[in-house]
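The step that takes the researchers longest sounds almost clerical: writing a folded protein down as plain text. Below is the pair of lines this work produces for a single protein:

——
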Amino acid sequence: MTPRICNLPSIVCKAANGEMFMVPLLELQRVMRRQKVGDDNVETLERITRNLTRRQELSRLKVRKDIRPGNDGDDDFDKLMLQNPSLGMYRDSTVGVDTQVLYRVNQTVRIAERYRETLQIESRRRNGVAFESPDDTGRVLEEKSMNLSTDFSDLDQGELLRHLSRDETNDDDAEALTNLGGLMREVSERKQRNRRNSSCTPAQLNEMRTIADGSFTTEDLLLRKRTTVQETEQVKVSGAATYEAKCHNLGVVPSTQVMKQLGKDECRVDHVGLGREGAEALAQALGSNNIVTRLSLVDCALDSKESSTRLHSQITGVDFSENPLGVVGAKDIGDILDANSTPHQFLTSLRLNKTSLGEEGVLSIVSALKNGNMKLSILSLSGTLMANKSAIAFGELFEFNHTLTELDLSWNSIKSEGAKHLARGLMSNATLHKLNLSWNGLENDGVTALGEMLMMNLGIKELNLISTRAGAEACLIISEGLKANDILETLYMDGNPIGDAGARHLMHALSQNKSLKFLGLQGSNLTSTVVEGEPQAARFNPACPDGSYELDLSAQAERTVAVQLCQLGKDAQEDYMRNVKLDGQSIPDIKSMDWPDRLPTAGILTTNFVTSKTRKTMTVIESKKLAALEAQFAKPAMSDNERLSIVNMFSPYNFFLCSQIQRILHKFSMGDERVEAAVMMFTRALDTDECLKDLMEPLHERESRLFYDALSFYGFYVFSNATGHYELNLTLPAHRHIANRLKDASLEEPESFNWKNIIYDQYSQQMRFAISYGPPSDWKTVIPSAGTLSLDYVSSLSAPEGATPTAEDDLQQMLSGPVGIHFEAGKPHPASNADNADNQIMYLRREVTNRYFECQQVKTILNCFQLGPQRIEIVVACYANILDKENFWQVLYALRGWEQSIAICRLGPTVCFDPKHPSLHWILDSSNPTHEEVTKKLVHLAASDTDLPNMWNIRLNGRKRHITENANMWAYLTTDTFTPFLEFDFLAEDAWELLGKTEVEVADMSGGDKLEARKQQAARLETNRAKQMYTYCPDDTSFRAPDWQTRWGLMQPLLDKPPWLAAWDRYLRRLVRLAFRLGEIQLSSPIEDLFDDYAVDDFMGLEDFLELIKDSGYSRSESGFYQKLFREATPSSDEVDPQNNDQGETDGDEPSITFDQFVHVFMKDPPPRHRSGGATSFKFA
């Protein structure tokens, strides 16, 4: 219960249950003096008042609950307020005058007055005195003062009598009368003293009084009465009674909703169905209403006769939507908006959606706005059947109107012509902030005009172009507008067939625009691809503009492309635009012609645009753009498929952190769309090596499985170190995203051939590109959506300055921990199973991303693996992070045979060629320019060294040849074809190091010894090749190679294999195909031919076997290893069947083996301690 403090003789209190009480002011003052409580102690005052209300003598003043304000009607209430001005003294502390509370106070005062009259009657009856007039009152008081020796002449007699009556004090109570008179006299003197010492007006003094002052003299009551009258005039009047009475007069049922809404600031009577009679009653009620400032009459069955509805100046906003106002209604509304007809303008917001105004009606409204309206700021004319004439009129209006801030012209019949005039008017307008032109057939020409407007406009912050038939060419112009505009914050392009080309233009513009916060592209056909026959403007890619162009400068879209090309050529130091012709005439230099500033407006421009790629750094998506993307995804009406389309469009132009991807994925529902979005953004993430768990957190267990199924081995790639082999099925979205990521990686790096060995296979057509600066130029950086793509990506980035190699302890912890290499006594035990080795390589790729190595450390990692494809992948994955690339030859020398040649092909021969250390196994295809370059260098080295032959085991197009090394060697190699395919072993001077020979030992050798040693070395290399080829040959022995190393495994689909195995198989397929074509392994294998050369009657004795081992280039220690294996393969004499002794021994009791046994023995490689070449066993320091 909170007391309402006022200057009435009694104070009105309202209890917590809603009941009202009258508390005598004098009694409250007495209690305050007794307890020494000041009038500023609000909490104590509330407590005292609460206690007083509990007293039984106040129970008779309880306000009856059946008193309900409003029953007497508004007019009766206004009359009551004027008759009782003292009610204005009761004020609510928060909302001003409360009419219902005032009414309750009025009822309370009436009860108190009747109670006071009763007290006076009882007092007269007790004393036998009747107070007929003020004179009688004075006489009686005079008599009382004589009896009490107290002078009351200076006091207001009526005031004193009222206090006596209110406090139920008997006039014979001398003490009470004396105290009351003294109190009143003291109050009077204080008032006079305050008036003398203060310059405040009586009204100000009255406002400063408190309860303790007891200021309730006649003068103060009169002053308060005047103030109350003024406050009464400000009382809110709804006019509900007027509406109800008018409805009864018109014979219609009053609407309860209307009566309730008339008492609110925003009166919403939508869908009520007022009709003419109801509208007339509402209009009369609004005539006396001083509460409503905004009026909504949506779908109220109003026609043209009720369109104005007697609006008065207090109403600032009105909504007549979905009422058939027509042209007549539009003219009536126009009169209200016309400053000539209505000088005092009051409407700031007007909504006329779906009101069937037509062209004539809208033109009436526009005409009215032209006549000096300076008030209206919001105008909505959606679905009003307007067309081009109205749009043209609005265009003229905007040239001088500076009050409209929002305009909605959606769902009309505006075409390109109207849009052009509207855009022309908006070029110089800076006050319109929101423009809605959605669902109009603007087409490319109309949207193009709006794009040009954005270049000049300084006001529009939100532009809605949903479903306006805008295409890729229109997006090109819009993108130009976005580049020059720093005002626009929201752009809706949903539902337009812009395709990937249009999205590409918009995304490129976003990289330069800093103001746009939201870009809507739902349902924008983002899965289209560039096809032949499309306009060049649609196929133009600003991120990679290289190509040949033929542009019509009179067409706006193609002229924009020409402007962009000229601007790029003007800003560059080099000459990008070549063979420039305008209408067939050559243009020597565009810079001297001052293009694009003076680019002609007509003519056919042809040019070849060739850029030297420079590094283009892509950064993490800006926070405001990410917030805009999240806000768009948060729309409940957006489906997951639409969210996925936007991610598909947005992600190729931005990089993300895993935490940002996590927030985006949380906006998706559980399902395949979220998985595909995760896959897509995984390829754009920059910190998957450390924060992959953040990206995976929104995915459930099933979704995680689908995620890794979609990415396969590439799910363990970290694209900040993208060097590796890729086999991609471009029909799969995940593989297309990987290809796009590789494209962006190439654009980030300095100029280099980072895409190598490109094979694009589209159905029956195959395209090969030896090397490329990123994707082939024919693609214009647009990755196809069909076919398969095979490539080797080799990063040209070098280690940052100050990078240090990984510590040995950290290296061992990496190998034994995440990679999973098993160690015993510090020595690794390589996995012999291909699947286990593949898993180790996957984790290794992720771990080496942010580590740097020396070549010796890479050799350490190589010793942890024994299978060729995995060993090559280690070299490739670590290449970009090697600090001492000048020693890279050491890593290559640690490989064997085909491992060397395939690693060279994947990284590029020019990368691996070292003229001081060329002793490697080479496979070179001279149709590749880099291969041809290195081949010529090797031929030159061989021809310049006359001491010993350098090129051994030469195969020219698959056929083994012996070629003399001289100055004519290259001519001989290109006799049959200008682009020979070569495979050979190159043994230069440094090859002695591979045999473990020192310089002193080599110097002591004679020429014959050197030649014999070199032959042995070449024979050993040829034997190793024969062993590697044997597993791919048809054979009926019991020897079984791993599946991946068989002919059956070789022919399995490459897309189903790990990338490193697919790269191995691509080269092996070509070698095996050549061997079959030439009959080398068609009927027998090289191993079988070797056995036949040394065997007798299908058996090989120990001496013959040892001779074969020696001729194959093996050392003595290695011969001992094979001799032991030979004896283990032959049974002892005790085990030989005497009836069938030809399986184990010949006539001379010499042990012998069959071809099947020979294969099992010969296919085993000596352990490292038996190998020649100075190889040592692996051990950590």
